[in-house]
Design goal:
With about 575 residues, the protein is mainly alpha-helical. The protein has helices at about 5-40, 50-85, 90-110, 130-160, 170-200, 210-240, 250-260, 280-315, 335-360, 365, 370-380, 380-400, 410-435, 460-490, 520-545, 560-565, 575; strands at about 1-5, 45, 50, 500. Bound molecules: heme-as.
């Protein structure tokens, strides 16, 4: 089915897809720089006028917050229109886009001017400029406004299609944004009510474990907010792209509803080392974390069955258990979207398994805050999520612009190159992590500097491996931009329209009422959040010691003390002290 977008709908979609892709150039560049700093190839605190933590903050904020949120909103607008047949709510959609763009500009300006090198988690007591918190809050609340428009579209669709099955793409989009809305309320509170006045000097101190707990209430659901648009592509589009059918629509719905229920009440698994939270709360959320792996296991089996079905249709005779895997359209250049999605799935097998290692209360103490962690999360957010986003962005840009990609072979190769780079890069990080390499550390000025007493020669090959992986990833991303720029200069050859390769199911399935309504799942989600989080918040209120004054990320003394020393004429000469 083809649908046309109005001029304004088209402009909005193009804007939301293009803004983060332009910023992505910065995000990708700072990814490569990370590998160079960490391996000791750069042995200084800054390079090209940006310091290490500034670059790392840009890398995290642009790739993990800006790209993902803009894409989820753009793709959500298009999917809601395509699958409900109801026109976009343009007023809310434009207000949302403007809020998100203004928010992004504010945050990016603060990071680029060196006033917000606090990484994407903005942990207190590191202080950022107030505009950084305001920018983040605008970006997030802007995405809520888009969602408010979809609620109206969904209710209209429901009224007109009372007993019909909700389209799977609508279940995916709405579940994702219900979860996103609920999880981001506490982080909005933390940013605007706790951190903003503290960073403006209105309040003197802040409760650090409380802000961290409110962040992780949001932070783990955030990772599924990144993932679910790609899961939508796996369920709704991949089976048809592979030449087959979806094994079960009900299984897909169950997976999305389970994400709604389990994504939030697991955030404490990021705080297993948090002294203010008791063991019982941590153990309970560790168990719930295994619950959130369930929808991914359902996905693994359902999508594998759908792909096997496609392989049969393409002539596989089932010679052995794995023969179907080679019968898929890996290198068909006109179906390039397939290659982006399948590569993401293959990477995610390892991203998921390492997540389960992290979730173990006991094993976590081995890997927490080591390089193992970025090894894990690059195989998730920089695997399925990133490949889904760039693959679908190309697919949509082609259709929205009425142009055709000319460099199809290169377009098809990019995800394979990315996958090779990702496996090399993550292996370096994970092996290094198991040998004790810390994450978020400029090792070029310490552990990887042969003149330093901290030098660790046993980390040379692991950090060297990440450089090799990083260079391959950078090359793949470079090719993506070559394809994108070439598309920009191509001639318009057809009318613009949207069409998606939408699935049919292998079996005729019954409508199961429980899987055809959001209400029961929202109720279960709220109960589970209360059970998991009331004790966690009570813990941090009870066991937190003194609250903390603000610190600048580059200085180990509180800002006020530091200022006092300077006022007293005691210039802090760090070089001499060293
Ligand atoms: Fe995670 C830390 C646990 C999934 C992202 N995670 C992070 C951080 C990020 C992140 C960014 O329990 C670091 C945050 C920070 O800055 O501190 N994670 C999990 C678990 C899962 C998981 C249990 N994470 C993700 C996803 C992410 C993501 C998804 C981004 C999109 N993670 C943790 C924990 C920590 C953590 C702890 C904190 C650690 C610490 O100490 O700080 C699960 O959801 C994973 C389930 C997935 C699976 C895989 C299913 C496989 C599929 C592919 C099938 C393939 C087919 C193809 C069908 C069970 C679906 C076959 C065809 C062929 C041709 C072969």
């Amino acid at each position: 089915m083809k649908i046309n977008l109005s001029k304004s709908e088209k402009r909005l979609s193009l804007l939301l897809i293009s803004v983060p892709l332009v910023l992505l150039t910065l995000g990708i560049y700072h990814g490569l720089m990370q590998t160079l700093y960490r391996s000791g190839m750069i042995s200084q605190t800054s390079f090209a006028a940006l310091d290490y933590y500034q670059g790392l903050t840009l890398h995290g904020v642009i790739n993990a917050l800006v790209l993902t949120t803009f894409f989820a909103v753009a793709f959500g607008h298009i999917c809601m229109k395509y699958y409900t047949g109801i026109k976009m709510q343009l007023t809310t959609a434009w207000i949302s886009a403007i809020m998100m763009i203004v928010g992004t500009i504010l945050s990016a300006a603060m990071i680029l001017s060196g006033q917000a090198s606090v990484l994407y988690t903005f942990y207190a007591p590191m202080k950022a400029h107030p505009l950084f918190y305001i920018g983040n809050a605008l970006l997030i609340s802007g995405s809520w406004v888009a969602f408010f428009g979809w609620i109206g579209m969904y209710r209209k669709w429901r009224r007109e299609h009372k007993d019909e099955r909700i389209p799977l793409a609508v279940v995916a989009t709405m579940s994702n944004f219900i979860m996103w809305f609920v999880c981001s309320i506490p982080v909005a509170y933390s940013s605007l009510v706790l951190l903003l006045p503290w960073s403006m000097g209105i309040t003197a101190t802040v409760n650090v474990p409380l802000t961290r707990t409110l962040f992780w209430f949001f932070g783990h659901a955030l990772v599924y907010f990144w993932l679910l648009p790609t899961y939508l592509m796996y369920y709704v589009m991949l089976p048809t792209l592979a030449g087959g059918k979806l094994y079960s629509d009900n299984a897909g719905k169950l997976a999305f509803f389970l994400f709604l229920v389990f994504s939030i009440p697991v955030g404490v698994h990021h705080q297993f080392a948090e002294p203010a939270i008791t063991g019982g709360v941590k153990y309970f959320q560790s168990l719930l974390t295994y619950g959130v792996a369930l929808p991914s296991f359902i996905t693994a089996f359902t999508i594998a069955a759908s792909l096997e079905y496609a392989a049969w249709k393409r002539g596989d005779r089932g010679k052995n258990w794995f023969s179907w895997m080679v019968k898929l359209p890996f290198f068909e250049k006109d179906r390039y979207l397939f290659s982006y999605l399948i590569c993401g799935l293959i990477i995610f097998i390892f991203g998921g398994l390492t997540g389960i290692i992290n979730a173990s209360y006991v094993l976590n103490s081995l890997v927490h805050n080591t390089a193992f962690l970025p090894g894990h999360f690059h195989m998730t957010v920089a695997g399925p999520v990133f490949l889904g986003i760039i693959g679908m962005s190309l697919y949509l840009l082609e259709r929205l612009s009425g142009k055709e990609i000319r460099l199809k072979r290169i377009t098809n190769i990019i995800p394979y190159l990315w996958t090779i780079g990702m496996f090399i890069f993550s292996t370096g990080l994970m092996v290094g992590g198991l040998r004790g390499e810390p994450r978020r550390t400029n090792m070029g000025i310490s552990y990887m500097d042969p003149d330093s007493p901290l030098y660790r020669p046993d980390w040379v090959w692991t950090t060297g491996t990440t450089v090799i992986g990083g260079v391959i990833l950078f090359a793949a991303a470079g090719l993506f931009f070559v394809v994108l720029i070439d598309l920009l200069f191509a001639k318009k050859t057809k009318e613009s329209y949207i069409s998606f390769p939408t699935y049919r199911t292998v079996h005729q399935e019954k409508v199961i009422p429980f899987l055809n309504s959001f209400k029961p799942w929202i109720a279960i989600m709220l109960v589970l959040i209360l059970v998991a989080y009331v004790p966690a918040v009570m813990n941090v209120m009870k066991y937190t010691g003194r609250e903390a004054p603000p610190y600048a990320p580059q200085n180990p003394t509180p800002l006020e003390l530091h200022k006092q020393d300077l006022d007293d004429g005691e210039t802090l000469n760090l070089k001499e002290d060293e």
